[in-house]
Amino acid sequence: MSIPVWEAYPFTFADRIYGSGYTIVFVIPPDVLINSVSSVKILFAYVTHTYFFSDLWIGHVGAGDPYDFDGNQVQIQVAGSNSWTIDAPGIWSDEVAFDLDSSKPLLLAAYFETAVDFPR
């Protein structure tokens, strides 16, 4: 499955994204969302690198650009913190109240304050 990615900065696509001080937005199409739910908990899997998230927000697409939130986005936290590191074996987010509507595209907007080697 291919997930569209919008970056808040210009760069040349390669096998990886390098970001420092930028937001990367992932758009998950509704056809891969299985159920509508009222709360969300996310498993961040460790692959080959350690990743530091400065902020992560989840929400639905709004009326503007395909990477704009509809205004009902919520911040994802891990252990009550707005920023965290993903390392082996992975990490679960805290559960957050969010009305996930499986008929709408879902956005994940990740802000990286420090340089990150982020796989596509």
Mean pLDDT: 79
* Count of DSSP-assigned helices: 0
Number of β-strand runs? 13
Strand content bin: over 45%
Cα-atom radius of gyration: 14 Å
Which sequence of SSEs, written as H and E, runs from N to C? EEEEEEEEEEEEE
Shape, principal axes of CA atoms: globular
Strand order of the largest sheet: 1-3-12-7-8
Measured between the Cα atoms of the first and last residue, the distance is 12 Å
Question: What secondary-structure arrangement, pairings included, does this model have?
Answer:
Blueprint: E1 5-7, E2 16-19, E3 22-28, E4 37-40, E5 43-45, E6 51-53, E7 55-60, E8 74-75, E9 84-86, E10 90-92, E11 96-100, E12 106-112, E13 116-119
Antiparallel strand pairs: 1-3, 2-13, 3-12, 4-11, 5-10, 6-9, 7-8, 7-12
Summarize the structure.
The chain is mainly β and 120 residues long. The protein has no helices and 13 strands.
Descriptive report:
By secondary structure, the protein is mainly beta. The chain has strands spanning 5-7, 16-19, 22-28, 37-40, 43-45, 51-53, 55-60, 74-75, 84-86, 90-92, 96-100, 106-112, 116-119. It is globular, with a radius of gyration of 14 Å.
